Known about the structure:
5% helix, disordered N terminus
Amino acid sequence: MRIAWVLILLSMSGACLAQPVEDAIDATGVKRLVIDVPRGEVEILGHSDTKIAISGYLDEAKTNFIFKVSGERAELRVEMPDNREWHGRQSTQLKVMVPQSQLAVWFNGVATDVLVSGIQNEVRADTVSGDLTLVDLTSTDSMRGLNFSSVSGDISLSKVKGPLVLSNVSGDIQGRAESRDVAVNIISGELELTLGAIEKVNVSAVSGDIHIVGEVQSSGSSDIRMSSVNGEVKLTIGGKFEGRLRMQTGPGGDIVNRLSKHEPESSFIGEEYLKATIGRSGKNEIDLTTVSGTLIVEKP
């Protein structure tokens, strides 16, 4: 019992070392907010006010804290020691409220889990080992879209609309987005992404499995390109597809075509390839390639 009380007191004293913070600044005229939090948990939420408001706790190991506006740019930074001696200390826990449509948000972290929600503007978020959770975001081409990357953290999306760029090394990417223009680069993680009507999709992977679900546009055209080295590449495409279908593997790769009746052919060195025109219109294009993995195209 005595040991338990000692542990509780120690944990409470450790928590008290983190500096509480609550502040707000007028964001009138601000076009971009740059947030830099090396570790901890950060929530970035859109609201109807014109102020940028923060609340929570700052990292015990911080060397400096900056929260200011300079012209059209606002900054929120938690600066940390360069030697990375952060272990066993209370990390940053912050809630950041921003005008939902007025300004772009750029976030940079290292070991930081981030939730971004309710923003209608350009959003960029980069972490190393932290997870990114993205909910209810909207952007356009003129706003430069939505750009998210992590090295080993996972990226999760829900109710995301607008041009989308995703990058990951060993983490997974999954979720839903209503994005006509999507670019994804993933090394060894898994990708599971459900889209609406597709205008342009470009996905590149090394050893991870990738699965894209979407629909051909009812008007206009769809250009879908997916490639891997040795993972599985799977495309589930709804709507009426008319256009060119191209699938190509290296030696040892496999092709599974469930979109049409066309069968793949094989070369003398074991490559498989399929080139077909489906329907009368050539406005749509699917191009799937792999070195030694499996290519699958199918209807829902």
